[in-house]
Each structure stands twice: as C-alpha cells, then as structure tokens.
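Batch manifest line 262
LIGAND: acetyl coenzyme *A
JOB: complex structure
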Amino acid sequence: GEVIVEPLIRTTVSDDRGEEPRYRGYAASELCEKGYGIEDVIALMWNKKLPTKEESEIIKRIIMISADHGPAVSGAFGSIIGACAGIDMPQAVSAGMTMIGPRFGGAVTNAGKYFQKGVREFPNDIPGFLAWMKKNVGPVPGIGHRVKSLKNPDKRVKYLVSYVKNETSLHTPCLDFALEVEKVTTAKKDNLILNVDGTMGAILVDLGFPIHSLNGFFVLARTIGMIGHWIDQNEQNSRLIRLYDYLINYAVEDERDVPEKK
Ligand code: ACO
Ligand code: LMR
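JOB STATUS: finished
ARTIFACT:
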C-alpha cells in the first residue's frame, strides 16, 4: 500500500531543488541580474518580501554602520583573542559572536520590542514607560553606552537618525519614541544616550521587520568586522595573548599554609 511520511521540517525561506536556489521563490541569479543587492536578500529572507528602494537603502546603511567598532569591544576582542591563540576563522569568529548579548550588540531585538510597546502603551508618557521598564525589565535595551555620551555623541546614531528622518519618507513612530526616551534618560545621566542597538531596533520596527529578526542585523553586520579582525591578526602573525599582571586586580587571600585535612 501507499506509505505516507510526515515531513521532518517545514520551510518557507528557500528551495534548492531546481537548478539554483530560489529565495522565497525568486531565483538568486535573477535577483543579481535585476540589480538587487544583499540588503534586498536580507529583507526577502527575514521579512518575507523585497523592500522598496528607499527601504533597502536604509537596511544597507544599518549593516554598513554597525559592521565594526574597533578592537576594544567585547565581540572583536573575543575574536582577536581566538585568532592570537591560533584558532581557525569560524571558531574565532564564533568566540566573538558569543559576546553578542543583552549588554553588547544583542539589545536590538529587545530595544525594538520595548520601544514598540512604549509607542502602543505609553504614548506621550515617557516617565510611565521608564517606570514600567525599571520595575519589569531593568536597564532599557537600546539606551546607554560605555564611552559615548551627550558630550561625545555617537556619530553612527546621529547619521542613521538624520538619514532616515531627512532623506526618506519612512514613518518613524518607534524611532521618535526612542528619541523621546533618550531626552529623559540623558537628562538623568549624560551617557544614557540612544545607542546603535536602540537606533537599529527602532528603525527596523518602523521598517516592519519581525521583532525576533532584529538581533540578526547586528550579528550579520558584526560578522564582517570579526572576520576582518581574524584576517588582520593572522596577517600579522600575532602572538598568543596573555594578560599582564598589571591588568589584573588580584584580590586574593595572602599566601598561607594549607591546613591539615581532618
Ligand atoms: N537604562 C537605565 N539605566 C541605565 C541603563 C539603561 N539602559 N544603562 C545604564 N544605566 C544606569 C545604571 O543603572 C547605572 O546607574 P547607577 O549609577 O545609579 O547605578 C549607571 O547607568 C551606569 O551603569 P553601568 O552599567 O555601569 O554602565 P556601563 O557603562 O557599564 O553600561 C551598557 C553600558 C552595558 C551599554 C548599559 O548602558 C546597558 O546595559 N544598556 C542597555 C543594553 C544595551 O543597549 N546594550 C547595547 C549597547 S550598544 C552596543 O553594544 C553596540
Ligand atoms: C559597538 O558598536 O561595538 C559599541 O557601540 C560598543 C562599544 O562599547 O563601543
């Protein structure tokens, strides 16, 4: 008789059963031929549809501007330590990737999620939003930076905000809400600015991306930087990194005798 087998997985993203991959039905080569770029493929795979020209220009800038932020940040530093330990590229890059989380780079999703909640549930009530966040969440994702502040603004954020607001027709309720939050938080403390994660998250919500896709933008973009750092260290034949004692505060017990075991 006929045997019916339940599929193991269901996919809506891509299909390789023809001559070439089709991304949500579109042949990859035809996308290239017709002038689409990587930003269009991202939107197609992550948001199920091709973006408008204006939207893809915003996505492109988000990726470009967050591709790297120097060697000192958690992600790049993780990859550099890996590279210097002689680790291969995929593993060294994933060491850096592991650092992407709630404090570093991985606040995009929750920034988008909570700013969107703010737009819906706390319109014109930033203090109410901040009180709710303090009680239920903790630090506001997308707000705050270790070195950037009102006195030392983050040019990436300024550029993205200005580009989206002045050079596109995107409707920006989430970004506007995030900027209002920043006004209140920076009045409390100079470094509680809207950061790159928060700016990306708010703009991506305004672009209609699914909330759970948002951290993907930082992950994707920063992979470019981490690969760059791995190549750079390899080309320089860098030595193993070992922290110097002066970089460590040894808050340990004084040297003492081990007592006899009872
Ligand atoms: N919301 C509310 N209060 C905050 C926030 C925030 N997002 N961030 C810091 N604070 C407060 C702290 O409670 C603390 O207050 P206190 O002095 O009264 O105790 C003060 O500001 C200093 O906080 P620290 O944690 O010492 O600041 P630090 O410079 O170490 O933190 C960080 C920077 C991790 C980015 C922090 O601001 C944060 O957690 N932000 C939210 C997560 C986030 O958006 N991360 C992405 C950063 S951008 C990027 O990685 C690409
Ligand atoms: C980054 O883009 O990596 C950051 O904004 C984090 C940092 O501390 O610079």
